[in-house]
Structure formats: structure tokens, C-alpha cells
């Protein structure tokens, strides 16, 4: 009954709806400046893969990281989210699609390892944006050390 009354009042009074909504954190625009990303990427140490978070937007089911990869990655497959890559520096080959033989579940819904068979390859350059839907196997193979990219992970709803 209380919920029904609150719904009726909210429908009749837009100002009340705004007041109630403002008690939770409002959605906000966030800009990731190129200068900040460059500083962060320059601070990433050399190694197989190193990364740092650039943000988490839980309401949207979105997380972001800046990664540096100096050697080949292993095949990955995510059942619960889409990967979006934005290449910042260097070049790499993205191997994707096909099937994966020999991979293993590392956490629920996450598969890693093995080898992609009958996949497709594309060379990535700075500025390229790649969208890898959930369930598509993929693997990054840097052409040289210091491949830097943003990854945004978008949860399936």
C-alpha cells in the first residue's frame, strides 16, 4: 500500500521524483583526458601484461582498464561481457572467432588458454576501436613490446 501511494505521489509531482532520485548518486559524465591516459600508460612497467583501472561505472555495468602488453596473450572467452578495445600505442594482431581447443574455465563464465582454430586475424593500429561481443574467443599478439590499449568491459544485461 505504501509503495502504491508513493508511486501515485511521484507520478503527480515531478519535483518529488527529482528529490527522491537525488538521494542516490546521479549519473555523471566522466572524461578520461588523453594526457592522463598517456601519463598512466608511461608508468606501466614492462612485462607480459600490466594494467591499471581507469574507472568503474557499476550502474552501466562498465569497467575500464589501461593495459600494456609486451608479449602474446592467451586466448580468452567471456560469457558475461563484451570487450571494447581502443588502441593507444603500438600494433598487434587480434586473432578472434573460430573455436578454442584446450581452454579451461578460470572463473565462472571465463575461459582462458588453449589455441584458437579457424579464427580470423586483423592488425590493430593506434586509434582503432574493436568490439568483441560476449562469447567470441580472442587473443592479442603484439608486434613489438609496448602495445598499449584501453579495454572497456560491458556486462550483459
Model description:
The protein is α+β, with helices and mostly antiparallel strands and 157 residues long. Helices cover 18% and strands 45% of the residues. The strands form four sheets. It has a five-stranded antiparallel sheet with strand order 1-2-13-4-11, with helices on one face. The chain has a three-stranded antiparallel sheet with strand order 3-8-7, with no helix packed on it. It has a three-stranded antiparallel sheet with strand order 10-5-12, with no helix packed on it. The longest helix has 11 residues. The protein is globular and about 45 Å long.
- Quaternary structure state of the chains depicted: single chain
| Major sheet size, sense and barrel closure | 5 strands, antiparallel
- Compressed to H and E, one letter per element, the order equals HHHEEEEEEEEEEEEE
Q: Distance between termini?
A: 30 Å
Q: Could you tell me the mean pLDDT? A: 86
* Sequence of strands across the biggest β-sheet: 1-2-13-4-11
Question: Can you lay out the helices and strands and say which pair or pack?
Answer:
Layout (H helix, E strand, L loop, with lengths): L1 H11 L1 H8 L12 H10 L5 E9 L4 E8 L6 E3 L2 E9 L2 E5 L2 E3 L2 E4 L2 E3 L2 E3 L2 E5 L4 E4 L5 E5 L4 E9 L2
Antiparallel strand pairs: 1-2, 2-13, 3-8, 4-11, 4-13, 5-10, 5-12, 6-9, 7-8
Helix pairs in contact: 1-2
Gist?
This protein has 3 helices and 13 strands, in the order H-H-H-E-E-E-E-E-E-E-E-E-E-E-E-E. The protein has helices at 2-12, 14-21, 34-43; strands at 49-57, 62-69, 76-78, 81-89, 92-96, 99-101, 104-107, 110-112, 115-117, 120-124, 129-132, 138-142, 147-155.
Amino acid at each position: 500500500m505504501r509503495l502504491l501511494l508513493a508511486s501515485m505521489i511521484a507520478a503527480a509531482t515531478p519535483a518529488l521524483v527529482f528529490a527522491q532520485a537525488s538521494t542516490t548518486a546521479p549519473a555523471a559524465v566522466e572524461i578520461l583526458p588523453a594526457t592522463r591516459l598517456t601519463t598512466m600508460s608511461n608508468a606501466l612497467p614492462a612485462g607480459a601484461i600490466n594494467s591499471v583501472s581507469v574507472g568503474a561505472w557499476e550502474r552501466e555495468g562498465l569497467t575500464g582498464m589501461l593495459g600494456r602488453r609486451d608479449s602474446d596473450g592467451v586466448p580468452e572467452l567471456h560469457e558475461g561481457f563484451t570487450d571494447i578495445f581502443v588502441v593507444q600505442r603500438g600494433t598487434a594482431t587480434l586473432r578472434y572467432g573460430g573455436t578454442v581447443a584446450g581452454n579451461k574455465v578460470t572463473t565462472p563464465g571465463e575461459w582462458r588458454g588453449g589455441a584458437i582454430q579457424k579464427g580470423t586475424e586483423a592488425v590493430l593500429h593506434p586509434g582503432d576501436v574493436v568490439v568483441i561481443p560476449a562469447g567470441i574467443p580472442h587473443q592479442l599478439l603484439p608486434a613489438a613490446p609496448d602495445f598499449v590499449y584501453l579495454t572497456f568491459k560491458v556486462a550483459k544485461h
